Amino acid sequence: xxxxxxxxxxxxxxxxxxxxxxxxxxxxxxxxxxxxxxxxxxxxxxxxxxxxxxxxxxxxxxxxxxxxxxxxxxxxxxxxxxxxxxxxxxxxxxxxxxxxxxxxxxxxxxxxxxxxxxxxxxxxxxxxxxxxxxxxxxxxxxxxxxxxxxxxxxxxxxxxxxxxxxxxxxxxxxxxxxxxxxxxxxxxxxxxxxxxxxxxxxxxxxxxxxxxxxxxxxxxxxxxxxxx
Length: 228
Ligand SMILES: O=C[C@H](O)[C@H](O)[C@H](O)COP(=O)(O)O
Prior knowledge:
With 228 residues, the chain is of the alpha/beta class. It has helices spanning 5-14, 31-43, 55-64, 101-109, 141-149, 184-192; strands spanning 22-25, 49-52, 77-82, 86-87, 93-94, 111-119, 132-136, 154-157, 159-160, 163-164, 172-177, 197-200, 202-203, 209-213, 219-223. A hairpin with a 2-residue loop joins strand 9 and strand 10.
């Protein structure tokens, strides 16, 4: 039987959740396993409240009986567990492959700690092979895409069938093909300087710990600057 490495990493991360915590629920196929495990622990008596980063995660959590609150109803969160599309050894991340980067960044930034969970294919020496998702306002999409291209990438507006893909916030996603990102922090500053950009998928200095599930069944833990 083959090992589910996403499940392995996600379930390890759920061990960090304690009674009374306010927990941020990530989005995607790895976060899915964390939410599932949390649901199990809640049914066994764990007392938490949670904030979801997408409609999909909210629906899953509700079905599992995890008590949910709106982001606006709490001051801050204790711990967020979320996946990533790429991560490097400094725990810089690319996120947003599932389109949830804006809420994910808001929730993770308002959490005392963030654990990123991933399978080993996500771990890279240099970010950028995965196209960087950038959430942009519909109003100026052509201009914003042209501005993104000046940063040295090929931006492609994400589609959902024949239509442009819309995020849970009603915005579009430009997937920016860079090949390699030499300095994630420089690029983040440039992206923030483009008015039509709502948010980008570079998470820098946000993750505290990475839990990586490996194909041989082991788990690698990488600590960020702040230890957990
Ligand atoms: O928008 C989606 C998120 O950033 C996901 O956490 C990311 O795309 C990783 O997803 P998965 O665990 O499915 O590879």
